[in-house]
Amino acid sequence: MEIITNSRSSKTVKYFRAFFFISLLLLILFSAGVLAIFSYAKLLGPPPLSVPQSTLLYADDGTLIGESNRGEKRYWVKIEDISPYLLDATVSIEDQKFYEHHGFDLKRIAGAALADVKAMSKVQGASTISQQYARNLFLHHDKTWNRKLLEAFYTIRLEMNYTKKQILEGYVNTIYYGHGAYGIEAASKFYFNKDAKDLSLAEASMLAGIPKGPSIYSPLISFQKAKERQLLILRKMEKDGYITAKQRQQAEKEKLTIVGKQSDPKNNIAPYFQDVVKQKLKTDLGLDDRTIEFGGLRVYTTLNLKQQKLAEKVIQNQVSPNSQIQVGLVAMEPKTGYVTALVGGRNYEQSPFNRAVQAIRQPGSTMKPFLYYAALEHGFTPATTLRSEYTVFHYNHGQNTYTPHNFNDQYANREITMAQALAVSDNIYAVKTNIFLKPKTLIETAKKFGITTPLENVPSLALGTSGVKLIEMVNAYSMFANGGKQIEPVFIKRVEDSHGNVIYDNHPLQKQILDKRLAFVMTHMMTGMFDKKLNGYATVTGASMLKDLTRPYAGKSGSTSADHWMIGFSPQLTTGIWTGYDNGKEITLTEDKKLAKKIWAAFMEKSLKGQPKKSFKPPKGVKAVAINPLNGKLATKDCPVSVKTYFVAGTEPTEYCTEHLKKKDHSNPTKKKEEKNWFQRLFGL
User: Fold this and answer.
1) Which of 436, 420, 434, 363 is nearest to 388 (CA)?
2) Which of 52, 178, 446, 506 could lock onto 451 through a cystine, CB 3.0 to 4.6 A?
3) Which of 127, 130, 365, 460 is labelled catalytic?
4) Residues 259-311: pLDDT tens digits?
């Protein structure tokens, strides 16, 4: 009997030892596994927190003008810009032990498991905020063991590499609040039309209850259920010490106004401008479409909302609603190249084709300033005279002929100065100059001004018969306005990623390209279109605008049978207008022919209202003299008209006008010199 007892005791000891060693081995294996998981999680480093977010576009004053979304609103705001009530309510109802656990609430998990076993179904959740955030970031919401294990692993990675503050910030920025609103900022704007930082306790507690079941607890679906859950959250917050009983009672009584719609859609603000910005994000920054659409970028643009609204309103007021004529407008700061307003057409919904940056149209006489700048470089001056008369030009060794015409076939039938030729837009003077310089010179000069569209090497290029883009022309004229510095059209000032890191910061380079003196001489000549003193056989081309202008401007108009342009500038702003039909149909109505100038004058005056009336300041190396505009000679007191004209110092006229001297007794009349032709005068032959 004693032997049997000892044998049983021996077996018990063996079983116990085996169980102990097996348990110890399992514990070691489990510990090693846990250690391996944590080591691997640490080795992988912090998981990326990139989630689809709306890219936001801002005007130059910080106003939101557009966003990318496809039925989903996704914004990211820093935790400092979220109401503390919302953060406290979220922690209280979703994860009371959030600041104490390391990603998993084991007591809560055990309690939920027990409740599920008793009910024989899934009745209670135990996911922490960290687990929910991991699920929102990296996983599909399917209910499989594989997803559960991955969720746990991602939770470990989050807890090991991010602070509780970062995790909570990420959670409230990614959780779904119903009706297409992802994150608390989108939800706050949708339900209460306010920023997340401005939520009251009552509003915050209402929103904190929605993520548990947006289709159940949305106040738009069932205000009663939403209110019940709000009251539950408020009592929980009081119990957890986040609020007092008095605060709870006040919040319970607060009457909430549910807006239930997103703030006014922004994509209808300057839609043509926004299209250019998105294209620039691709071409200039190299971003792909997905990053642009869902990268949560903050794009700070150059758009001036006041000018943009003025541009659209002026066009609407000036163009008949029954007309099919189209309009393109570009406004730019000449010193920086910042595009402050842009209109690519009269109705974006009907036609998103951007006539300001995409259309290639004939610029007409707006090409002449580049031609005359080239002429100044080759020895011409504002006082250089050429004969204006009906002319048939022969080129290509006489194989081709070209017969340009002035407006209404009006010719001076005498010699006129370059200053007057520009002011009245004499075509004969321009073509003669172009042939003398050779069209290739004008092409090279246009490139210097930033014109990239290929131009035809023909005599008629002087009259703008080769198409260009409006944005190019406005940029080129801005180089006159800024004293000859090279600029490019700028639409984007700065771009930040979803975490506020600056990934692009524009710093315009201003390289001196033009001769400052010649740029100013040309600028002053371009003021001539608004100077009645330069009237001659024809009136100056800006005469119809004079009554509407209150400050110094320089510019040039241009027209072909199908295109009408007006481009001009003050020291502060350059604006270009194009009008015409998309199909190239001839503009026949008198009112339509006036549109470009009328829109330009109204827009410039309204945009600059309240700003100083600046004049164009001459640089060193130029000299102003009074000349007779008809012959380019120094004016005397007897000349009926005298115009202050700038020249590069040393090139100004030295001969006085004698045409208007009073008749006197000349006892020793001198023999009249034989008149030289313009080639001889120009080169001193």
Assistant:
1) 420
2) 446
3) 365
4) 887 665 555 799 999 999 999 999 999 888 778 887 889 999 999 999 999 99
Q: Which residue has the tokens 């620039």?
A: 280
Q: Three-state DSSP class for 471?
A: helix
Say which amino acid occupies 30. F
pLDDT tens, residue by residue, 495-551:
998 888 999 999 877 899 999 999 999 999 999 999 999 999 999 999 999 999 999
pLDDT for 123:
40
Q: Is 365 among the residues known to form the active site?
A: yes
Please give the share of the chain, as a percent, with pLDDT higher than 70.
81
At which residue do the structure tokens 């401007």 appear? 553
How many CB atoms are closer than 10 A to CB 63? Answer: 12
Is there a catalytic annotation at residue 39?
Answer: no
Distance of CA 259 to the CA centre of its chain: 30
pTM of the complete model? 0.76
Pairwise CA distance, residues 300 & 491, whole Å: 9
What whole-number distance in Å separates Cα of residue 174 and Cα of residue 296?
12
Q: Which two tokens stand for residue 89?
A: 């309510």
Question: What structural domains does the chain harbor?
Answer: 82-253 (1.10.3810.10), 339-608 (3.40.710.10), 621-662 (no CATH)
What are the tens digits of pLDDT across the range 589-617?
999 999 999 999 999 999 999 999 999 99
Residue 504 CA from chain centroid, whole number: 13
Active-site choice (67, 92, 94, 127): 94
